[in-house]
Amino acid sequence: QKEVEQDPGPLSVPEGAIVSLNCTYSNSAFQYFMWYRQYSRKGPELLMYTYSSGNKEDGRFTAQVDKSSKYISLFIRDSQPSDSATYLCAAYSGGYQKVTFGTGTKLQVIP
Amino acid sequence: GAVVSQHPSWVICKSGTSVKIECRSLDFQATTMFWYRQFPKQSLMLMATSNEGSKATYEQGVEKDKFLINHASLTLSTLTVTSAHPEDSSFYICSAYLGQDTGELFFGEGSRLTVL
Fold first, then answer.
1. CA distance B10 to chain A (A)
2. Long-range contacts, stretch A62-66, CB < 8 angstroms, 24+ apart
3. pLDDT greater than 70 at residue B103
4. B108 and A34 in contact by Cβ < 8 A?
5. pLDDT digits (tens, 9 = 90+) for A58-75
6. Beta bridge partners of A33
7. Chain B residues near residue A104 by CB distance under 8 angstroms
């Protein structure tokens, strides 16, 4: 079992829809959770960063972490064609330990 | 946010030659950097952890003699692909933590290597 599981998609939604991206993880030591957006042929861009359980909102993006169920979510409101990218969830236990990534979900927002 | 810069962003080389990729943290010091490899339509594969002033830690299956990593300063790590072959063609990406005990890991723009 991978430490971070993510549905690879692809996920296709119409413009304006609410997008829900999800990951599960198995390592109870993970304390930090991130979402990255990666456009084709570019390095990943840090979108959201959350410590422990809870919600974090930034504009149209909301990240949720439920440590009791080991579930990570990213919601995108009013999705735009420019949101079309691959979204990677990631988790990490702290210190300078390596980050564990999900496989990424490819999202396409159709105009 | 913090900036991590990679150079070159794109390189083509002949089989048998060596290629060096630089990774710089532009506005912060990075004692630890990570090098990833990414194949088309696949996720990131961690190759090695680069530690300033000490030897890199390689992941299982990564040839340390082929992928030489040097982290000579707090703002620069280099990856040298030695005696490159076509199968080494890939997208190489570096990353660095903004600070200790933070999950804010920032990535460079990536370097696309094509070996002819």
1. 10
2. A63/A33, A63/A35, A65/A33
3. no
4. no
5. 999 999 999 999 999 999
6. A50, A91
7. 43
List all residues of chain B from 49 to 78 with a beta carbon under 8 Å from chain A.
49
Backbone angles phi, psi at A92, to 5 degrees: -160, 150
pLDDT recorded at residue B101: 61
* The two structure tokens encoding residue A55: 């919600």
**Nearest-CB residue to A101 (from B6, B43, B97):** B43
What does the alpha-carbon distance between residue A20 and residue A71 come to, in Å, rounded to a whole number? 12
DSSP string of chain A, one letter each residue: --SEEE----EEEETT--EEEEEEE--TT--EEEEEEE-TTS--EEEEEEESSEEEEETTEEEEEETTTTEEEEEESS--GGG-EEEEEEEE-STTPPPEE---EEEEEE-
Residues of chain A with Cβ-Cβ distance to B109 below 8 Å are 42-43
A34/B1 CB distance under 8 A: no
